[in-house]
Amino acid sequence: MGLLSCILLAFTLASISNALSGQYVTIQPNFRVIAVTLGSTLKLDCYLDGSQGSFPSWENSSSTQIKTFTMKNSIYGSTLTIENYSEIGEKIFICSSENSKAEITVITVEETREGDHFYYGNKTAALTCAISGLEISPKDWLFKNKSLSGDKKFKMENSTIIIDKPNRDDAGPYTAVYEIKSSQRTFEHQCVVEYTAGPLVMDMARSRNLEQGDDLKLSCEVKGYPQAVIIWQRDKMNITRNGTIFSEYMGYKDGQIEIKNVQFDDAGNYTCTAYSERFGNSSTKNIIVRVKDPIAWVWPLVGILVEIALLAIIIIVVKLCERRNKDSLSEPPREKYE
């Protein structure tokens, strides 16, 4: 009984010591198993809560890219970064301290991705994202966070999705969702593949007529993926932010400009150009802006009134001349006296 009591007392004291120290290790991402694409960067954060100035350490890793950090509330951490991850299969990474440890299993996913590009006249487009070396089953395809299951425009065939009669609105990143079975659990993995399209600036109005003091707002609608860079010009000169308000429009930075209290020198030929650095091409549309005097309508009226006044004067003068001639003809001839 004496030996058993000593063992129980030692265990109790150890438990109390651990509880008082309050140290426990957690790993982010907070999953038991994660998937990493072959050749990508693996980054794991380990947190040690209640540390007395010591940092957690990583086991089973030869990476030299380990950085420690300190947070508030006595939380110490260590970040493990492995670039161009090349481990094959499953590998367990362990983060530990003196009294606690946590582990995470990393599974390597080898992806084969094949995108497509939009051209006028395309009847279909095919995107492929295949995963090899694992037990997988396709689950869904997503576009703009929306499931494409049941959409007649899209046809799913194993690791490929086919787009029927594609257009620029269909351009963007597509996500293939797979279920992967590992030795520990089943989890989801997302594979992203792109359907690209060159930039196209949509048609604008040909012209805008404003009066001095009005506000001018011009918007540039662009389609295509990846997003192009928008450049605004007036009379072939780049528009600066001095007096011009640039804002986002339909997800495009600087897609809209606004000028308050326009003046005569704000008139001109405005051009919106969408340039794609990736494809090296651009699309352009322009609009002519005219700025008129707010009382410009008065001058035609003044001209009409002046014309009427001149016409009246001419009529009066003509009438006076006719009357004078008539009076001169009706007078009797004067007698001549010798």
From TrEMBL:
| Residue spans crossing the bilayer | 297-318
User: What domain of life does the native source organism fall in?
Assistant: Eukaryota
Q: Name one Pfam family in it.
A: I-set
This protein's UniProt keywords: Disulfide bond, Glycoprotein, Immunoglobulin domain, Membrane, Signal, Transmembrane, Transmembrane helix
Source organism of this protein record: Biomphalaria pfeifferi (Bloodfluke planorb)
Upper classification of the organism: Eukaryota, Metazoa, Spiralia, Lophotrochozoa, Mollusca
Q: Which residues form the Ig-like domain?
A: 29-105, 199-288
For whether the record's keyword set contains Cytoplasm, the answer is no
Q: CDD domains, per this entry?
A: Ig
Query: What InterPro entries does the entry give?
Result: Ig-like_dom, Ig-like_dom_sf, Ig-like_fold, Ig_I-set, Ig_sub, Ig_sub2, IgSF_CEA-related
Question: Known SMART domains for this protein?
Answer: IG (SM00409), IGc2 (SM00408)
Annotated protein name in UniProt: Neuroplastin
Instruction: Tell me which positions the record assigns to the signal sequence.
Output: 1-19
